[in-house]
Amino acid sequence: MKKRIIISGGGIAGLTAAKLLHSMGHEIIIIEKSKQFNKSGFLVSLKSFGVEIMDELGLKSQLIAQSTPSEHMHWLDSNGDMIRNISYKEVNKNTSQSVLITRGGLHDVLYKDISGKVEILFDTTIEHMQQDGGKVHIKLSGGATAIADMVIVSEGLRSVTRARHFPESQLEDFNLLYMGGRLMGKNSYSLGVISTYLDVDRMLSIYPISSNEIAIQCYIHTTEELSKVHSNITAMLRDHFKSYSAEVRHLIDAITESGQTFVDKMGMVHAPDLFRGNIVLLGDAGYCPTAMSGMGASLSIYGAKALAHFLSESANDISTALVKYDRLMKPIIKKFQENARNNARSFIPGSEADLSRFSHLFKTASDDEVSRMMTDQLVLTAEQKKFIIK
């Protein structure tokens, strides 16, 4: 039976859900707080089952067309000396292809596919929701009202709707500053070769996008509040990389002076229940695993497909579908959030001793050991891929 489904948040999770649910014949309305979508955003690596699902949706070719070349990653110490050169081709032999793409590029692929097929209300948010008789009554910003059979909350890490309607959920401060930005201008970096510097309490990556553009991403351990981070970001970046090469210092200066950076603190979302009545959490709003899991975008896409799968099984019983979605996702969420903690300890070590120990392990491990180290944590079981609950 056709349902009226409102999706609050038109990010990657929300658009994926919109595509899947629209194809099942449901009426979809997306509520989006921004005034319009754009292609800006930092780089994400879509891996494993995330790429597989995009392929199933018929969007892989568009994904590849928007991707950034990634053939090798040079892992370096703070002096710029090589710890290890990793070939993505070798790493990916144990898993599906990974695709390096800007978040805006991935979003654009999904948006273009559903544009004109579903209604999108820009510059709109949910002010209030009340459930009654299997329906969700919604008051929108601006005073408009709506009634839906189900509401999907996919507003991202700092979801206001989650905080209001899932008060038992928690947003854990991961104590990691994230900064991402892109610089236009001629550069001499080799296309397809990513340089990542490992250091105590910090990590810096340089991604050549073209001969005229590079992207920079860095992570810094800090316990400061986000508001203070924003006010001190330039001084913080310069201080943390002041002992690096002149080339790196120049990039840090250029990216901070450009004003084109995205700065946030990583957070990990813990929700005891992913649904309340006919309101359900999806993607980062419900289970953000942080970028340190390497699977944030893929998990959002998988979650959308899982939700659509269970709704297709129980088209007339939303409650049963949401119970199954909740049961399937919880152990998967736990796995990727634990992976994120382990990766943070390894790749952003808290002491010189930990850095030395991990660098030695990374440098001396066999190619097969490194491949497994990088990819074993990215996979789902055969049952999970088929949405079978054990």
From TrEMBL:
Gene3D superfamilies: FAD/NAD(P)-binding domain. InterPro entries: FAD-bd, FAD/NAD-bd_sf, FAD_aromatic-hydroxylase. Residues 5-334 form the FAD-binding domain. GO terms for molecular function: FAD binding. Signal peptide: none annotated. Pfam families: FAD_binding_3. This is FAD-binding domain-containing protein.
